[in-house]
Amino acid sequence: MDASAPASASASAPAPASLSGPAVLCLVLLPYALGHYLSCLLRTVNAVLAPQLVGAAALTPGDLGLLTSAYFLAFALAQLPVGVALDRFGPRVVQVPMLLLAAAGTFAFAFGTGFMSLLVARTVMGLGLAGCFMAAVKAIATWIPPARMPSVQGYLIAAGGLGAASSTLPVGLFLQHADWRTLFVLLALCCVALAMLILLVAPAQAAAPKQPFGVAVLAEVFRHPAFRETASLVLVPHTVFFGIQGLWIGRWLTDVGHYSEGDVAWLLSIGMGAVIAGALAVGMVTEWAGRRGAEPLTVAGVGVALFVAVQCGFVLGWQPAHFHYSGMLSVLFALAGTITGIEYAIVARAMPPALTGRAATCLNLLIFLGAFVVQAGFGMIVGLWQPDAAQHYPAAAYQVAFGALVLLQLPGIVRFFRRRRRPLLANPVESPL
Fold it and tell me: Whole domain around residue 308: which residue ranges?
């Protein structure tokens, strides 16, 4: 999918230039940003709901990790066909049926009674929400002038951060008055309402000619030096950030920190606030460093090194008795992990314009596949230990699991700093790779 190349609007829809600023806000940005909001909320909500899900279906840590990560697997598998469909038919035609599919999966999850029924429902949910972010990007590229795209995309990312934040303390407060099944029924209704909103108000665009997106195109993206060097440094940390923040940080706070469900929801909400602040800070720091001659990839290298250093705090069992110190570690994980979002911008800047959209789709595929492996694998490692009478797993289980993640990320960091003597070149012919 090439989101950087706007498709032409249909004759029945207003041309992009005819949309005023308020129309762009109400008819384009708001509906699609709400989709990204819902996608991020449902992706991370299990971090707060984990105790209820474990109790309702007698889940082991391995079951919980696999159940939650099924969203990532479905999300990843849908990326390439969704990208092709968005380029061919436009975001409105794609998003409406996919949101209805997401609603069906969310309804099914609300009434699931066992591991397998919840797993299937979670997978359908992930499939239905797989196009939310890229549909928003496609709509922005189609209907918003290029000069305004950076700021508008910033609003889109903030909407996703708000969705993730809504899955923490607000969900915890909701659970004081209703159960988790009621929550998913309401979220399913929100998916239906959003599908109807997009159908009724979002501008349409004409179907574009079919463009090939096969093995040859994927190989072209993967062979590009900018894609390879960026992915070798940031891809694994990105999958760790998505996989751990969406589930296991909450479980670590419960099992190792021994916090109540209310305290966990509060700390996770602070972490999501840190994600929003971190996303804004990464952009400002990258621009500041660029004015001083530093490449974005250099900023990413330093940031990833800090992110791994924070993870070493989990490995070393840094959990002082004071509430704010141990909680600080989970917030630092969220804050430092936002550096991984720079991956898209680096690839888009360094690669030829004709490849940037497809490269973003390929990144999505790899990131969500990796997040599936991280989230499920982390649970399997923790599950090797026996829980106590309160079903809390020991700190050693989490130390080993985090240690495995650190070891996976170290080679990319070492390789990056060894190669810093040779600048990254956007031209693959001139690249030393």
Answer: 213-421
